[in-house]
Write a structure and sequence with these properties.
This protein is of the alpha+beta class. The protein has helices spanning 95-105, 121-136, 140-158, 172-185, 192-198, 203-213, 218-235, 240-247, 252-263, 267-275, and strands at residues 3-5, 8-16, 21-28, 32-36, 41-49, 51-55, 58-62, 67-70, 76-79, 86-93, 117-118. The chain has 10 helices and 11 strands.
């Protein structure tokens, strides 16, 4: 659950202590970070306005099109500078989280970053989507997919050296095995890691396998299967709240969100139309 930082009401933290992952959402109109370090890998993406960041003897602008990454124990500082507002989201990955991430990517350890400032609209969109998803805490499957997928892209593009993240095979047989399991067990608490292990792939490879053979991410495919099942329940006049839990959604609001986005109407509207 979000909680305000008692030192500054414009900062909010979300902690996942078991996984070694912490999140920060900040909105400043005046603030200055003195030189400091963290015992975690830090990724920070500006959403609005910006600031000035100093690291490695360089002073650079943090803007909405940029991402800053700091290695564990790497000194850095920041202040408002040219901007009247600085709204950003940050992630802090302690060693346990980094170890889990390396396992999901199939590598021995996460790479070191030889610079701090990065761009790339797709990379930044991915991290913001991941941050929002973990903040909501309503879909562990999607959270893991975004976490492993986004960091896989970051490490491949900007990590030092050759880190050897293996690409997914283009194997329709493996994909069929996973989709068959999802078709049968959609209502259960499926986990990305379990699906990947079941066919001998890393989590990152499973995501790539789906994109190359199915044309959807694993989460998007699972959502479609659950929506199809929801339609069958609704045609039988089941209550939307009951349908949501019966097909594996977190709650009725999650069902409503996905149903309307895909079909343009709410589950209740669908049920009424089916009854008519």
């Amino acid at each position: 659950m979000a909680r305000p930082d008692p030192r500054n009401s414009s900062q909010y933290w979300w902690d996942r202590h078991l996984s070694g992952l912490s999140l920060l959402c900040a909105d400043f109109t005046t603030h200055e970070y003195p030189p400091h370090t963290h015992d975690a890998l830090v990724v920070a993406v500006t959403e609005l306005g910006g600031s000035v960041v100093k690291s490695r003897g360089q002073v650079q602008d943090a803007q909405a099109s940029t991402m800053f990454v700091f290695n564990p124990a790497e000194p850095h500082a920041g202040w408002m500078g040219w901007s009247e507002r600085w709204q950003y989201r940050a992630m802090y990955l302690a060693q346990s989280a980094l170890d889990g991430l390396a396992d999901g990517l199939g590598i021995d350890a996460v790479p070191y970053f030889t610079r701090n400032l990065f761009g790339g609209p797709d990379l930044i969109r991915g991290f913001l989507a991941m941050h929002h998803a973990i903040e909501e805490g309503r879909d562990a499957f999607r959270e893991r997919e975004l976490l492993v997928g986004s960091f896989g892209i970051l490490f491949r593009r900007h990590g030092s050296g050759h880190i050897g993240i293996k690409a997914a095979p283009r194997d329709s047989v493996l994909a069929a095995r996973v989709t068959a399991r999802m078709d049968a067990e959609y209502a259960s608490d499926l986990r990305l890691e379990g699906l990947a292990a079941g066919i001998g792939l890393t989590t990152f490879q499973l995501i790539g396998l789906f994109k190359r053979t199915v044309g959807l991410t694993p989460h998007a495919y699972l959502t479609q299967v659950r929506l199809g099942a929801a339609c069958r329940h609704l045609r039988r006049a089941a209550a939307p709240a009951e349908v949501a839990t019966a097909v594996g959604f977190y709650d009725q609001s999650a069902l409503n969100k996905h149903f309307k986005r895909c079909y343009g109407i709410t589950p209740l509207q669908f049920a009424r139309a089916a009854a008519a």
